Amino acid sequence: MSPPLEHDYIGLSELPFSAAAAAGAAEDGALNLKETELRLGLPGSESPDRKEKVGLTLGLLPKVFGSGAKRGFSDAIDGAGKWELTSGGCGSEVEGGKGGALFSPRGEDGGGQLSGHGNAGKDVAPKADGQERKAAGQVGNSAGNDRGVAPAAKAQVVGWPPIRSYRKNTMATNPSKDKEDADEKQGPGCLYVKVSMDGAPYLRKVDLKAYNNYKELSSALEKMFSCFTIGQCGSHGIPGRDGLSESRLTDLLNGSEYVLTYEDKDGDWMLVGDVPWEMFTNSCKRMRIMKGSDAIGLAPRAMEKCKNRIRISF
Amino acid sequence: MVGGFRWAAMFPDEVWEHVFSFLPADADRNAAALVCRAWYRIERRSRWRVFVGNCYAVEPAAAVRRFPEVRAAAIKGKPHFADFNLVPSDWGGGAEAWVEAMVEGWPHLEELRLKRMVVSDDCLELIARCFKNFKVLSLVSCEGFSTAGLAAIAANCRNLRELDLHENEVEDNCLHWMSHFPESFASLVTLNIACLEERLVGLLHRVPQLVDLGTGKFAAQHHPELFSKLESAIAGCKNLKSLSGFWEAGPTYLPAIYSVCEGLTSLNLSYATIQGPELIKLISWCKNLQRLWVMDLIEDDGLIAVAASCKLLQELRVFPSDPYGAAQPISLTEHGLVAISAGCPMLHSVLYFCRQMTNAALLTVAKNCPNFTCFRLCIMEPHTPDYITRQPLDAGFSAIVESCKHLRRLSLSGLLTDLVFKSIGASANCLEMLSVAFAGDGDAGLHYILSGCKNLRKLEIRDCPFGDKPLLDNAAKLETMRSLWMSSCSVTLGACRQLARKMPLLNVEVINERKRGLPLELQPDNCPVEKLYIYRTVAGPRSDTPSCVWILR
User: Fold this and answer.
1) Where is there biased composition of kind Basic and acidic residues (chain A) (predicted)?
2) How far is B52 from chain A (nearest CA, A)?
């Protein structure tokens, strides 16, 4: 019997060849998410299809850098030695250079493969004869990985170890003391983060997977906290994109309205709306609705992060 | 009846009722009810406590009719593996049918405990309105309700003594539900909820007689004033025996509870990411602890300290702080378990998550603790052998079942062959519940269990190479059990069909979550069954099955 499909992460240095080919296809320089989407696999192999919203999205710095994607890639390697998530971003510029947090593929993929969700991997699975089922499961915490090499994918089996969902959800939003432990693990299909609001007596928990964009999230939050005064912490936006509008932000912060902030995997507090939705849900650990006046110290830094990226790409 | 002698006529009914009230277990009352019609009549009219282990085993109306004087009811719904996302979310376990029947037939109900059921706000409102003398509500691992439903309970149940809501999925849409409690709530002795610490202080002042408190978040910016308020509020609760909650507990606020530690018999720190040294400090105050739930951050050293301080310890649960991470250097190993087994002579119940184990350690534990009633070991990586000898852990678990003659519950893990099942089948005479995962070599394993273990009630199995033969060969056994769960094993549809035909008192539920392919009725006999749930029932097939569940007849 052939061994089950195995998808290991491999050293990043081997990736770029297929990645470069992918990125090179984006001829016009405009960032096309699909084109720059990397799928993992050994060089030259076809990686299996994944659902669009699940899985990894790595974008390479596109040709805007100069003589082609390869150069962009080697810059990235020489830089922090880490991959940068570049899908979308502030305006039409590309973030680059600054070492970004690495990703964690969603639990749904690892878990979903082995549950009864009609996934192809499942046909292989049920022969319980001691074979370990491997799926492109979770990457361990790799944010602190100096060599920039993602560790081997760990198989994640549905319902194992046997921990109640309630405990998993509570633990997922419970920051662990150990920074290395930064990756929250969620059960397949849900991603609960705590939302606190200054002055409110209760924390709420929301499932980020229940929403598809910032608009949905903010209207849900507005409903939840509607008994308190909320300013327009809804749609921030660079015209046409999910991003931060500098002028809009200043308007918000001038008043005493509330703004929605979140703590990302680095432990930094950021303004919600700063990064593409996917990136946000991958990196958000918890959220806080702050008084606008408190967020003033926050905003320039968030803008700074964004500006830095813009600057470096040229 | 012997020669027509009428036992019941020996004494008036009240005398027999009084005699029956001494029967310790429902099983004994059941036996008495079979003696003669008069005893059946007397017994049923005097039973006031009912436990329904499977909500689908009997029609609610039938239960209510049979025992009209019930004051306390406990009902369980979904199979245990629902806790781990193995059961589809729409599987069932709704509480409405039961609540409606109870409201109709048990207007004097005082106590209701539901576990793993889907409870709506409507149910809670019915309970709040219709049971005038309601005293105890316990919802554990339930879902489907919101804080609006809880507000109804808080507002209407003036005699509420115990409100236990732990590990439920509650929708939080009624921000002030707790303010519906009356100002002076002298009757409340158990309060197990989630709330923030500012409100906690206020609440504690209103219920100083509290015996059992479950907090929620137990961390905040350090405010010395809040700290001393909290400290004195907790110290004011002189009867406090049990504490739980402590989400995000930090070392800052933990000392606020030192004053009550000596009185504590139960401490649940299993959501608190407190590190070893703080834990040791805290637990060293708790000399009278009988039950401790904690995270593996306590490590072996912490458990050695527990073994030295908590000589009255009866139950220990150690949960993993990082179940999915790469192997973290958490130093919780088999040594911690051995230390506890050696130092705590009253220990009888253990749940232990770890990453490594040896047969030798298990043999030592078995020798130290022959009084175990519950032993659940979860070695987190499936198929993990003895890390020193590389052998399966058959010998270790066999030692446990052979030594612990009163073992009622057992969960296995690690690398295991059919040999361990042979030991269990032969020795585990008191075993009522067995959980098996990633174990065994073939059909023989399951056959040993089903042909032995004479008191087995619940068997749950996942990812084991067990197939049709042992099921069919031991079909009669299934009627003596409450339920059997099998998922990711090697059972075929044909065997399930046969079983259903042969055993009319079983509901054979085949769960198939894939939407593709032929409907189950048209699938061939050799079609593999992914998930199987079999339970005995006198109610026949249930009427609320979702589309992914087929009940075979």
Assistant:
1) 124-135, 176-186
2) 22
Name which of A150-154, A216-220, B485-489 the model is least confident about: A150-154
* A12 or B205, which is more confident: B205
Nearest to A161 among B380, B511, B515 (CB): B380
Q: Which CATH class is domain A192-229+246-291?
A: alpha beta
pTM over 0.90: no
Probe site for chain B from A166, A205, A206 (most B CB atoms < 10 A): A166
Point out the residue among A183, A202, A205 whose CB comes nearest to the CB of B175. Answer: A202
Rounded CA separation B423/A28 (Å): 70
How far is A125 from chain B, CA to nearest CA, in Å? Answer: 8
Residue to substitute from B324, B466, B516, interface A, most A β-carbons within 10 A: B324
Are B95 and B119 in contact by the 8 Å Cβ rule? The answer is yes
Q: If you ran DSSP here, which 8-state letter would residue A4 be given?
A: P
Of A140, A157, A158, the CB nearest to B325: A140
Test B81 with A159 for CB contact under 8 angstroms: yes
- What is d(CA A110, CA A30) in angstroms, rounded to the nearest whole number? 32
Write B496-504 long-range contacts (CB < 8 A, 24+).
B496/B529, B496/B532, B496/B552, B497/B525, B497/B552, B498/B472, B499/B471, B499/B472, B499/B475, B499/B534, B499/B552, B500/B551, B500/B552, B500/B553, B501/B553, B502/B472, B502/B475, B503/B475, B503/B476, B503/B478, B503/B479
CB contact under 8 A, B326 and A178: no
Q: How many helices (H) and strands (E) does chain B have?
A: 20, 22
User: Are the beta carbons of B84 and A129 separated by less than 8 Å?
Assistant: no
Euclidean distance between CA atoms A129 and B264, whole angstroms: 47
Question: Nearest-CA residue of chain A relative to B141?
Answer: A166
Give the full edge-to-edge strand order of the sheet including A204-207: A204-207, A192-197, A286-291, A258-263, A269-271
Who among A118, A161, A176 is closest to B514 (CB)? A118
pLDDT in tens, B297-329: 999 999 999 999 999 999 999 999 888 765 556
- The answer to whether the CB atoms of A167 and B270 lie below 8 A apart is yes
pLDDT tens digits, A194-218: 888 877 766 777 888 888 888 888 8
Question: What's the token pair of residue B268?
Answer: 């649940």
Omega before A161 cis (within 30°)? yes
The answer to whether the Cα torsion of B153, B170, A260, A273 is positive or negative is: negative
CA distance B250 to B220: 8
| Closest chain B residue to A205, measured at CA | B172
pLDDT in tens, B194-251: 444 456 666 777 777 777 777 766 665 566 777 777 788 888 888 888 887 776 666 6
**Domain definitions of chain A by residue range:** 192-229+246-291
Contact yes or no for A174 and B248 at CB 8 A? yes
